[in-house]
Amino acid sequence: FSRGFIRIGMVLEMSFIAFLGVSLGSVLAVVLSWRLFTEGAFGSTSGAGFYVPIGQIVLFVVIAMAASIMLTYLPARQASRITIAEALRYE
């Protein structure tokens, strides 16, 4: 494996895991807030509509994904510099 291949592989793997976490967390947060709204947990909501701020959710998803990619790149770069024999020595 080349160093670039290892680096890109690690960044893609961590980005996929972060995307799953962020997207599942966003969906579950919207579902939970809808359930709390419809069950009256916020008090009387007669005449009020349920509003999902899609723009803000997308903004926070983009920020979280960018932070994940930036914070994954440095460890991936360090891992790509280690020789295979040295990495296997501590297994």
Give a written overview of the molecule.
The protein has three helices and no strands. It has helices at 3-38, 54-81, 84-89. α1 runs antiparallel to α2. It is elongated. The protein is mostly helical.
Question: What key phrases describe this protein's structure?
Answer:
3 helices, 0% strand, 91 residues, mainly alpha
What is shown here, in short?
Helices cover 77% and strands 0% of the residues. The chain has 91 residues and is mostly helical.
Q: What characteristic shape results from the CA principal axes?
A: elongated
Mean pLDDT comes to 86
Helix content: over 70%
Helix segment tally: 3
Measured on Cα atoms, how large is the radius of gyration? 21 Å
For the sheet with most strands, the description reads: none
Q: List the helices and strands in order.
A: HHH
In whole angstroms, how far apart are the ends?
A: 19 Å
Total E-strand runs? 0
- The secondary structure category is mainly alpha
Name the poorly predicted regions: none
How big a fraction of the residues is strand?
under 5%
